[in-house]
Amino acid sequence: MTGSDITVHINGQPFDLPSGSTLGDLADRLDAPWDQVSLEIDHQIVPRDLWPSHRLKAGEHIDVVTIAPGG
User: Considering the entire predicted model, what is its pTM?
Assistant: First the structure.
């Protein structure tokens, strides 16, 4: 990790990202299909249209939830 990296927690595990990363960057880095996952920060769902502009902050807790058809 360099001085310009941040650490967030994804599904309870620490994960390093460059400072300034967005939720969209994270979804792409995880190869998460945007139409098949939901991303939550501190138990609050973030709408997909905000992923590209939502800058991540160090220490945030992010849950990646796979959307299953049929409920």
Answer: 0.83
